[in-house]
Design a protein that fits this description.
The structure holds two protein chains of two kinds. Chain A is an alpha/beta fold. Helix content of chain A is 42%, strand content 13%. Chain B is mainly alpha-helical. Chain B is built from 13 helices and two strands; from the N terminus they run H-E-E-H-H-H-H-H-H-H-H-H-H-H-H. Chains A and B meet through helix 1, helix 3, strand 6 and helix 17 of A and helix 1, helix 3, helix 11 and helix 12 of B.
Amino acid sequence: MKPLPSSLSKLKRALLTSAAVAGVAIALTPIAASAQGVLNIYNWSDYIAEDTIKNFEKETGIKVRYDTFDNNEILHAKLVAGKTGYDIVVPSSNWAAIQIAGGLLQKLDKSKIPNYKNLDPAIMGSMTKLDPGNAHIIPWLWGFTTVGINVDKVKAALGNLPMPTNPYDLVFDEKYISKVKSCGVSFLDSASEIVPTMLHYQGKYAYSRNAADYRDALPALQKIRPYVTLFSSSGYINDMAGGSICVALGWSGDINIARQRAIDAKNGNKIEALIPPGGGVPFFDTMAIPADASNVENAYKFINYILKPEVHASLSNKVFYANPNKESIKFVKKEVAENPSVFLKEADAKKLVAVDSVPNDIRRTITRIYTSFKTGL
Amino acid sequence: MSNRRKPIVSTGDRLLGAFGARTVIGIPYVWLLLLFLVPFIIVMKISISESDGIHFKDMFTISDGTLTWNVKWGNYAFLASDALYVKTYLSSLYYAAITTLICLFIGYPFAYFMARSPAAWRPALLMMVMLPFWTSLLLRVFAWKGLLANNGVINDILLGLGIVSEPIKMMNTSFSLVIGMVYAYLPFMILPLYANLVKLDIRLLEAASDLGARPLTAFWKITVPLSKAGIVAGSMLVFIPCVGEFVIPELLGGPSTLMIGRVLWDEFFSNNDWAMASAVAVVMVLLIIIPLAIFNKYQTENAAREKGRA
């Protein structure tokens, strides 16, 4: 197997760009600057504190170009096409596993990251399944897919039905979701979030490699489809804060952002991210250096900078996702540190499903099941 | 007049002239070749290549003097085997057709009015048609969200006036999708129609009126047939991009308004299957080109026949 000749890959990149004109994030291809003192970062949107980049530039004199994406698929397609021009990318660990296998990410030289010692060994240990020896990726932040509710509205909508002990019942059990539909139900618009969570809910392995498990999940998904009023991967934050959505299957940190926005707006909406007692489906977004990065030294400086306890803490303070930095907790704001849906209690953390990646044919099955679920086709 | 005399041209000039003419004619061909045919062939090649999701296998390998082909037609077979693809193609054609019809219905009177208005006004009117292009398409499409959403302007007004008791769901339905597409593509219908109608010889209509035709009859028998070229051009400019439209369905369409752009996205990004995505794209291009080619051939034959008759 040979990598694509570069001229072809260039044309492919052109194709990719036109295929995703809509991907607002993709509209600008970064300038492949290789001059000294530059660093090109490609990270998730709304995933950083306001002063992170500014302080890094001040401290090091490196000029940072910061671009954002909002799904793993776009980042992956860019890495596959090659020559992204980025020096730091932040894929989720299960996508990074595919990229590592394909040789798209560099092996890290840990001697250039003195702050590596701050990382929580338990979290790093859990990642060795996808990245043997933690050789390529370092967690940025992590969270889990769960159910967020508007406490009062859900109670009112359920009437005399008691709150279920398993929060997933609210979205996956027809008995409950049919009741809360009246105040608005939102699902993440992503096959790779909804389908594995459903499998987990049904007591199966969330990253099953058996296509039949996925097909078996479809009838249950189709049963609840009429009650989903919105598919959204980011807009639901404001809808939830504003009260037009009362139940969201979303990301833990986003739900907490909605909670904070409702508090700031003083609109009386009490938003809460629930913790599944049977364990949630987590995700780890990880920093990595693309194999063809041109500012590798600066990339190491940036990784080392993020791993400073106070910097890592400032990220959690801003976006309500847990960080993997065991030294950072003393810099985390009290209300964030004590929020059980940001930094999970040890018992809950232990029950999290271990993240895994799935082969291409299973990915196809997942997408197809999701399309069936969403459109009925 | 001096140019009625046969000009005396040297052989060298004639050669240069022929060369110049060929160059001028050649440029569009080179353009099409480089920017349409070559990319299409590359997409075609990807659609039959074997890949592991990251690297592509060479199309053919020579080892020990034997040539091995790695060509995979499976993607096309798969396209036919899953009803999803056929249904999505049909639904894309359906939404594109509806959009084209509505654009024609709104755009024709619009263009007609512009063409019949005093010549001094026309530049201003044309400007008004083109003005929206000065804003990004994304912004213009997003603006519809503000209008159509459950807590959007239209519902707020209706609720405020007491016409409805709860918001009408307009956003994320096929209604909002078609509105967005009509809005975005209407100028592409109006401009060719206007260019055509403005050249229409008004004396033909006067003659028809003198011969006793009512205005409506004259319109159907004279204006419409003469503007056929504008109608065809406008319809194609709207229909073709609408079939593959991705942005507007993503922003305004509902979860169940599936169009081929979304399926392509899924194949390319969610499934990371470039070969399958390319196969979907190739079929889409063929779906549009084949009817166009047939239509074009029919048009040319018709024109030739009419010329022969005359």
